[in-house]
Design a protein that fits this description.
18 strands, mainly beta, five-stranded antiparallel β-sheet, about 250 residues
Length: about 250
Amino acid sequence: MALRGVGGTSSTSAVTSIAVSNSNLTGTTPQSGDIVLIFGVWGGGSTKNVTSTGFAPPSGFDIIKLNLSGNIFFCLYKVAGASEPSTYTISNAGAPGDYVSAICRSYSSESATQFKAISGGFLGSTTSPGSSTNLPVNAVITTAISDLVVIAGVGNQISNGQLVSSQTWTPPSGFGNSYIQTNDTTVSFSPVTMSADKLAVASGNTGTLTAGFQFTPTANTPTVDICSVLIAISNSSTSSATVAWTV
């Protein structure tokens, strides 16, 4: 299994739908049998499920409501068909949110790729600019060396008039293909989605993994609402990466 492409989008306008690009690092759209993930943060009171044609949330998974501001973390996936577009449109069934940030990651498959598990991690907030806040995620159990683990994090500053000038993300040790989608300084919201992956994960317990999140404000100190999750994908129709959802 290998990363086929990664891309993202963000908006600080009140929208009920937005196009998410898969920027296709190899110059192609996802191929038949590839796994395609879309995840991110939608905020400003939009607490309904996020949808996209052909995609579904992982079995048993619902949106995560972040602590302070009506932000939600969402996650969707699909197994690609014979013909895939270069962008996917995601929609929120609720009232227009004030902001959205989303990442699309696609992975080539050797066999019948299956979504297997999603594990909860950090859910909280920080008011500590310039220092890294740890984002631990609970372990998943993988059973095949071709399994894939993706770590995802989302955040948004939520104090009007106190802008964030930069946001940085440090994946756990051994993770690569890091990608961050952010929208800094434009208005009083700074949504961010972060991700990285670890390919060909050996079978067994991943243990608790920890990423880091750091922000720099332009003035004063806003509260930044953040969460992290761990996503496990199996490259075999018979192997099973499983975990109970906890957050």
